[in-house]
Design goal:
The chain has 4 helices and 6 strands, in the order ββαααβαβββ. It is α+β, with helices and mostly antiparallel strands and 156 residues long. The protein has 2 domains: 43 residues; 104 residues. The chain is rod-shaped.
Length: 156
């Protein structure tokens, strides 16, 4: 029986190397196709810029500014529970201006003032990613009737 292998530097290599070279070529081609696919997928993922952290930071900033403004806090705390929930369109001008001035042009936002125990939903377009933050306005010296201010933003 004839030996199919010959000894080259202590390794056994098949005499017919053409088949192995084809296998190596196929392996390298698959490796190249996979790497190109991964690069394309990664670029697509990066093109969908992740704005969630930025939007949440903007919302927190707006809500904190409202929370520390004594006039707005007083207005929110003096609202009658029968009038809640209160939509953004019915907010007083100074509160509406404070919210709208903090919203960048690429976002659309809605806000609502609700009772602490009531349901408080912000309606958004179903195909959009909505980022909703809320803050509890608890009390001042004259009034203890906690309410919730919700702010929801999404991309235009």
């Amino acid at each position: 029986m004839k030996n199919k292998y010959h000894k080259v530097e202590q390794f056994f290599v098949p005499k017919n190397r053409r088949g192995w070279i084809r296998v190596l070529e196929v392996f390298i081609a698959l490796l190249m196709i996979t790497s190109v696919s991964l690069v394309a997928i990664n670029r697509e993922y990066k093109s969908k810029s992740d704005v969630s952290a930025n939007v949440l930071e903007i919302e927190n900033s707006i809500l904190r500014n409202i929370q520390i403004d004594d006039n707005i806090r007083k207005y929110i705390l003096e609202l009658n529970a029968a009038n809640l929930p209160l939509e953004l369109e019915k907010f007083p001008d100074n509160l509406k201006t404070k919210i709208e001035s903090g919203v960048p042009s690429y976002l659309e936002c809605d806000a609502k003032i609700c009772a602490i125990r009531g349901a408080c939903e912000i309606v958004t377009a179903s195909e959009k990613d909505a980022y909703i933050q809320s803050v509890v306005i608890t009390a001042n010296r004259d009034n203890f009737d906690p309410t919730i201010l919700k702010l929801g933003c999404w991309r235009k």
